[in-house]
Amino acid sequence: MDSLLKKIDVMKNPTVVGLDPTLEMMPASMKAEMFEKYGKNPEAVGKMFIKFNKEIIDSVEDIVPAVKPQIAMYEKYGIEGIKAYLETIEYASKKGMAVIGDIKRGDISSTAAAYAAHIGGTEIEGQAFDLWKEDWITVNPYLGIDGIQPFIDECNKKDRGVFILVKTSNPSSSQLQDILVNEKTIYERVAELVAEWGMQSMGTMGYSRIGAVVGATHKEQGEKLRKMMPHTFFLVPGYGAQGGTGTDLEGFFDKDKRGCIVNSSRGIIAAYKKNDKYGENVGEAARDAALAMKADLQY
Amino acid sequence: MDSLLKKIDVMKNPTVVGLDPTLEMMPASMKAEMFEKYGKNPEAVGKMFIKFNKEIIDSVEDIVPAVKPQIAMYEKYGIEGIKAYLETIEYASKKGMAVIGDIKRGDISSTAAAYAAHIGGTEIEGQAFDLWKEDWITVNPYLGIDGIQPFIDECNKKDRGVFILVKTSNPSSSQLQDILVNEKTIYERVAELVAEWGMQSMGTMGYSRIGAVVGATHKEQGEKLRKMMPHTFFLVPGYGAQGGTGTDLEGFFDKDKRGCIVNSSRGIIAAYKKNDKYGENVGEAARDAALAMKADLQY
């Protein structure tokens, strides 16, 4: 997992592109082509998503260290969607990009162990199968440590990582996460647990393989969490479309400007829709948006 | 969703069979047959799971109203596993059983809307596709109402349901869920929210389409929650293998002995392994175990 941190250093870019395609986002000509070829069905949508994602990946692979496909967007289209999810991961990995599977799984111990196959792979009669191939995944902490431990075990075995939801970027994250208990919020209690769990799986660059999701929309909270969890790497959603900006995020980083990877989804992958000059050139628009984001994050 | 409640009444059996197959659980002859036919790979495991589940379904369909496949067990085997999950749902539905997809999804609003396709289906160019076909799914509340609302909307449109995690059955559920805030635990706060959200989607039998997961391993808590949430239908995991018994559950039901469906997984589907007399007769053992559970729940 240190390879992601190194890649961020080399590219001087703590950005991850969220590959969250929707049917509405697809260029008209691509839609027409795939519907023509496969019919108006989930298979066509899956093929669009693959083509669309490959265009994005090809256009940013040399400037962005990672991609984060959101599996919900693919699950929406059933088995054909999941095929597109898997092909996207495979393609990005081959290009040398780190892949964060935004799957937000979480369950009791034995079930969490099954989900941990996402990063740990599966064994059948002594033979190993790496069927999902995510380098990192996101995990929900509501069930407590026995639902987390199986992921930690796989992180250690495979040098992969997880990001545990601490403070999410959405407006109603406050409903549960901000409940105050003895002058500490629930998300701070979760943060303490995540920091503690993380000590079981330290990398070599000062950060643990057990990371945290901390929304860009919560400036003060992010700063406070950085101080509370000096060895916890942050995945930061909510930049751009959801409202966070580069200067809001200064305090999420450590003094060496490390410790975070910031996600942008629509702001990059649907950038072509915001300026007529791009026409249907999804890749060029994505690259320009990614470069603008990189510049915004260099404080 | 009232159809599940009615089916429970007719069968006089508030039981759901958890279809959580593992490779270790498969009968030796079935394993040998499928490995021979497909090779030692995920496809073979998927085929085993389908055959195994069909045997269980065939043997309990007239005495048990519902099945609950746990998607993690299938995701473990990648796309082939998910195919088995889908074929299991399709088969159980055709047999007239209600299907609870134990998927514990949960995300921010737009993403939750994509996950809601599990119960709501997907539209492509005006055409509807019901790709997952679960009647109910489980949902994680850590992100608050904007991550729940899309599921409620689909419940209303399709008369399907969700069970939101309130108090899970695992030992470390206490770590986060039992934190005390002003004399109320976090799970009680979640329970209040779930009860409130549930009023948006009432069925005709006194219960809401927005249900709650309440672990059988927490007797007093279950009784208290039943009083707090008189219109919330409970999915109760943790019976049997995890330690809950019939008498522990009296207080989870309402005065008419309604309001719950109790899950057993290994205790039913792996029952054949507990008594030599069954040999590899998975179905017969499952039926006997299901009948014993039904008897245990008739207080």
UniProtKB/TrEMBL annotation, chains A, B:
CDD domains from the UniProt entry: OMP_decarboxylase_like
Active site, renumbered: K104
Orotidine 5'-phosphate decarboxylase domain residues: 14-281
PANTHER family: OROTIDINE 5'-PHOSPHATE DECARBOXYLASE (PTHR43375:SF1)
A Pfam family hit: OMPdecase
Keyword set includes Lyase: yes
Lineage: Bacteria, Bacillati, Bacillota, Clostridia, Peptostreptococcales
GO annotation (BP), single: 'de novo' pyrimidine nucleobase biosynthetic process
Reaction it catalyzes: orotidine 5'-phosphate + H(+) = UMP + CO2
Pathway assignment: Pyrimidine metabolism; UMP biosynthesis via de novo pathway; UMP from orotate: step 2/2
Molecular function as annotated in GO: orotidine-5'-phosphate decarboxylase activity
Keywords, comma-separated and alphabetical: Decarboxylase, Lyase, Pyrimidine biosynthesis
Protein name, UniProt field: Orotidine 5'-phosphate decarboxylase
EC number(s) from the headed UniProt entry: 4.1.1.23
Gene: pyrF
Source organism per UniProt: Aminipila terrae
Coiled coil (UniProt feature): none
Family of this protein: Belongs to the OMP decarboxylase family. Type 2 subfamily.
Regions that span the bilayer: none
